[in-house]
Amino acid sequence: MPEGPEIHRAADRLRKALVGKTLVEVHAEHPAVAGRLDGWVGREVESVEARSKAMLIRVGDHVLYSHNQLYGRWTVNRASTAPPDWKRSLRVALINRTHACRLWSASDVMLLEPWEVEGHPYIAQLGPDIADLLTTVAEVRAHIDEDRFQRRGLAGLMLDQRFIAGVGNYLRSEILFEAGVDPTRRLGQLNANEKDALADAAMIITRRAYHQKGVTVDLETYQIMRESGVARRSARHYVFHRDGMACHRCQSTIVHGRVGGRRLDVCPACQT
Ligand SMILES: [Zn+2]
User: Which domains does the chain have, with CATH numbers?
Assistant: First the structure.
């Protein structure tokens, strides 16, 4: 499942292909929007915005909301290129003279009016969006201090979009490693310095993942790992998918854990 940095990168691609350009063809196959986007032909796309794992595309007085859940995916092609031939079902296609943007397989699609966006049940409950470049470390730090989160265990809390929005499985492991914190602790057990470290780590790791296409280690480490034959899914991280390998910082063996059936990997020496 894509995490914040991947959704924001997808928004960047859609923005580049769509904003300020006139739509020449629109398909709305998803039942919630079928027949409702016909008026978009001949109009310009005004904005494309990612909010945690949701995408918002505005044309005139309407905003197309989509959340990819597990299987949804946006593709961007040249308008002259045939659509991909695969088993996914087309939900929405937005086509202008140069590009064709298509949403596949997403189950959660709807049309909102601009004033409805902030009150949408998914968007209204989100914490600070860690992959949004406008989010500040001070906002994240203040949110970490909120009473409602203090009794929660970090392993579960890190995936709660009300806490830090945009964090999924790989970011959880990587952020907790960078912060030096053991995921079995409760948030309220962290002292102020540890909470500072958690806020900083969330920013550092997520921005790196955004700019480096999912790579959370520095690019030099990534290159060295790749050249020594390590698979990309392990080479790109400090701990995630690196169980049994040596920690880059202390050489201890990375340990694999699972929480609620989802992978969570840690360095038992660096994370206390
Ligand atoms: Zn270590």
Answer: 4-124 (3.20.190.10), 137-266 (1.10.8.50)
